Amino acid sequence: MNIAVIVAGGVGRRFGKDLPKQFLLLGDKSIIEHTVNQFEQHPNIDEIVIVSHEKYINRIEDFVQINDWKKLKHILKGGKERYESCWTAIKQYESYPEYNLIFHDAVRPLVSQEIITQTILALDKFNAVGVCIPATDTLFIVQEGGEFLAQVPDRSSIRHAQTPQGFKQHIIRKAYEIALLDPNFTSSDDCGIVLKYLPKEPIYMIPGTKSNIKITHKEDLLIIEKLYQSLIKNNNEN
Fold first, then answer.
1. Which residues on neighbouring strands pair with residue 237, listed in sequence order?
2. Which of 34, 36, 120, 133 lies at a C-alpha separation of 20 to 30 Å from 61?
3. Which among 106, 98, 100, 97 has a CA at the least distance from the CA of 75?
4. pLDDT band for position 212 (cuts 50, 70, 90)
5. What is the distance of C-alpha 8 from the center of its chain?
6. 131 in Cβ contact with 92 (< 8 Å)
7. pLDDT tens digits along 1-51
8. Is residue 208 within 8 Å of residue 132, measured between CB atoms?
9. What is the Cα–Cα distance from 187 to 43, expressed in whole angstroms?
10. What Å distances lie between residue 67 and 63, 70, 157, CA to CA?
11. Of 16, 72, 77, 28, whose CA–CA distance to 49 is shortest?
12. Any idea which of 86-100, 108-122, 210-224 has the lowest mean pLDDT?
């Protein structure tokens, strides 16, 4: 079973809008509707779970009716931090250690069917799978305080992380169980948690796409709108 976990617990503090960014419109639908539709339409996704701030669960329930989502089985109450929301989904499937849990940011609405496919295929061979793209800019590591340059890492081995990130349920559960016992645990993405707390577990990387960007700032929404318009145009021409 392949379970898509849509992480939508954000409340949009950094975005400066009344609504969290996942509920803003992209074309004639909200961003989260576009995101969920990508997984709803994928033939190898068996179930979908959305983890949301409790304030917006009713809004998501309305989307279920509007879009007639058949695969959405659970809308779960998320936590204050992303890792708390992911842990909620992990516990939801604690009786199914063999399931694949595929975590995806609600605010990455242009994830492709191909990326979802490659994530699922990789989980046939590996217990943990990430998506990334090569870094194109030179990166700086600065000294504490950020005022002085400390190091310039080799860009050839640097990647920008994306989602989805996929795991066997028993692997991501084990990593979280260890992490949550660590008094110095700090929130990270799910691949980072597996890397730190299950360091012997290989994490396979598949290539992402530049269009699979995460909407974090206002300018990201403008970029997404342009990409979305371009995709619509290409689909109409084809």
1. none
2. 120
3. 106
4. very high
5. 9
6. no
7. 999 999 998 766 655 567 899 999 999 999 999 999 999 999 999 999 999
8. yes
9. 32
10. 6, 9, 41
11. 72
12. 210-224
Would you say residue 220 has pLDDT above 80?
yes
Q: Quick check: 89 and 51 in contact, CB under 8 A?
A: yes
User: Could you tell me the domains of the chain?
Assistant: 2-237 (3.90.550.10)
Tell me which residue has tokens 């577990």. 201
Structure tokens at 6: 């849509």
**DSSP per position, the chain:** -EEEEEEE----TTTTSSS-GGGSEETTEEHHHHHHHHHHT-TT--EEEEEE-GGGHHHHHHHHHHHT-SSEEEEEE--SSHHHHHHHHHHHTTT-TTSEEEEEETT-TT--HHHHHHHHHHTTT-SEEEEEEE--S---EE-TTSSSEEE---GGG-EEEEEEEEEEHHHHHHHHHHHTT-TT-----HHHHHHHHSTTS--EEEE--TT-----SHHHHHHHHHHHHHHHHHHHH-
Token couple for 115? 């990326």
Dist CA 117 CA 191 (whole Å): 18
